[in-house]
Amino acid sequence: MSSAPLPEIGEFVDFLSKERNDSPHTVKAYARDIADFAAFCTRYYGGGWTFAGVDRLAIRGWLGALQQRGMAKRSAARALSALRTFYRFLSVTRGVDVNPAKAARTPKVERTLPQHLDRVEIGQLFTEAERRAKAGGFTEARDLAMLELFYSTGIRLAELAGLNEQDVDLISDQVKVRGKGKKERLVPVGSHAGHALRRYYRQRDALARTGTRVGRAVFVGRRGQRLSARGVQLAIKRLLGTLARGRDLHVHSLRHSFATHLLDAGADLRAVQELLGHASLSTTQVYTHTSVERLKKVYHQAHPRA
Fold it and tell me: Binning pLDDT at 50, 70 and 90, where does residue 113 land?
């Protein structure tokens, strides 16, 4: 890879993480996509090149190379989106007045319905998590509190991992969430989640009394340090693994379940959009499709002339 493009990529990564406040997963994926594009350009142009000098044919060639490598259409679409964002960044910071990625056709992606838990599975999941919390100690109480908060608020993995003590108000039952682009929103906390958090706080206070230095993070490990997003993910996956189809479920499935169950119960779409922190209503509308598909299934099973 040519050494010339690397400073721009480093600055772009800093911008994504510090200015846009994107999740670590998004930052890593975008950085990987742009680095891959830079490596392709070095091979394609065979020598010295600049981002300002890239043409549409190079973009097309890169997308073709991604396809030949067997990259899924969804991943290729994300890579192209990363490149467009990168060129917008170059326009502002480096005065690059071309965006060859803008005219490139986005790979058509089939819109899949979000994976969510049905109400029976939710019941089974929380019964098991509560059983473990009663029988266990600090870790089990913490994991139940995280599970309850995910389902009660619909917050993202990075948002939960980044919570600090002052963000959670159990007197007015609400939590302040820092979402994408450093946007803040207030989300109500349900009674079950509030109860689980209070139980966990008692365990955390007991940990602090043993001499362990506990930081300002809401969710911490046994040594008192902030639990990483990966640590949260592993803890929730352990609980999801107790369900029959646990392997197919992820932390994000709880966010999908939160939205789907609210809409199933007649919640206003714009209210759900605000709770989820979606910038666009169209992003939230995918959950209405989930509800409609469920209704269709019930209809075809129950209606005598379906």
Answer: low
CA dihedral of 239, 240, 244, 247, whole degrees rounded to 10: -130
156 is catalytic: yes
161: Cβ contacts below 8 Å, ≥ 6 apart: 219, 226, 227, 228, 229, 231, 232
- pLDDT per residue as tens digits for the range 42-89: 999 987 889 999 999 999 999 999 999 999 888 999 999 999 999 999
Q: Which of 176, 180, 237, 250 is catalytic?
A: 180
Dist. CA 184–CA 206, nearest whole Å:
31
State which amino acid sits at residue 298.
V
287 is annotated as an active-site residue: yes
Q: Strand ranges (DSSP E) for 179-240? A: 184-188
Note the pTM of the prediction, 2 decimals: 0.69
Hey, what CATH topology would domain 119-301 get?
hpI Integrase; Chain A (1.10.443)
> Which residue among the candidates 156, 204, 256, 261 is catalytic per the annotation?
156
Which stretch of 67-71, 132-136, 289-293 has the lowest confidence by average pLDDT? 289-293
User: Of 199, 226, 255, 256, which one is the catalytic site residue?
Assistant: 255
- Active site includes 192? no
What CATH architecture applies to the domain 6-94?
Orthogonal Bundle (1.10)
CB 161 within 8 A of CB 227: yes
Could you say which of 88, 192, 252, 294 is catalytic? 252
Question: Active-site residue 180, yes or no?
Answer: yes
Give the strand order in the sheet containing 184-188: 168-169, 174-178, 184-188
**Residue 255 bears catalytic tag:** yes
Phi, psi of 293 (to 5 degrees): -60, -40
Q: Which residues pair with 177 in a beta bridge?
A: 185
DSSP states of 250-286: -HHHHHHHHHHHHHHTT--HHHHHHHHT-SSHHHHHH
